[in-house]
């Protein structure tokens, strides 16, 4: 009987201790984390390499991308000097247009989004559908329509014309973002302000705007980026050097600087700096603004 039990026990596989199992699990977890991190670093390096090459080329003395080394061992800033001289006015023009677009977008989209979020009317769903459909219209169609209207109104080659055109592209998107955030605002806090004697405008400015700060910053950032990177409206609605955004300046700059790419790339680097700074500074507001109102 005993020999039979011993033989049966000997035939069973050895049991693995909980400590050894946990060690194996931890090793697999670390290997998986290292593999995921390595893949992420490789993908990020591939995505950021064009930006690095843009900076590298802007610092090359020869200005030729074919003979440029992998590292700018002897950096030359003459390309930046030429870019500031030739494109400085265009950078300032783009900045004015982008700031004006942000102001106009928030002035129109914030009250509209609050009305669509708080008021309960049957036509609100129709209005939202119209806003969504307006985002699907190709930009070239809008640009051609604006050209005919601007020609009659005298808004061609003007800063207000470009601000209005860029705002027309940013306002529908801003309304959708702001409405999502304003859906979570309790009507009771606005009613409390009304009871204390505040009017509709005062209650909106003093209560709704501060509560929707993250969404407002997010909408403002996207409006700025829309306007800063606009090329189609600038190409269609301007034809003079007095009003020329930097995107159109780079496009026309390439044709005259094919032998000196350092100035072209320096202009691209300078035009990227405002967008990078804003994205870094407003990163936490973007995360909070895009998810605001999603969970109640």
UniProtKB/TrEMBL annotation:
Transmembrane segments: 31-55, 95-116, 123-147, 159-178, 215-238, 258-281
Topology term for the membrane: Multi-pass membrane protein
Gene Ontology biological-process entries: transmembrane transport
Residues annotated as domain ABC transmembrane type-1: 91-282
Localization terms from the record: Cell membrane
GO cellular component: plasma membrane
Cited InterPro entries: BP-dep_ABC_trans_perm, MetI-like, MetI-like_sf
The keyword Transmembrane is assigned to this record: yes
Renumbered residue ranges of the record's region Disordered: 1-24
Keywords linked to the UniProt accession: Cell membrane, Membrane, Transmembrane, Transmembrane helix, Transport
Gene3D superfamilies registered for this protein in UniProt: MetI-like (1.10.3720.10)
Sequence similarity: Belongs to the binding-protein-dependent transport system permease family.
The protein's name: Carbohydrate ABC transporter permease
Species per Swiss-Prot/TrEMBL record: Mycetocola tolaasinivorans
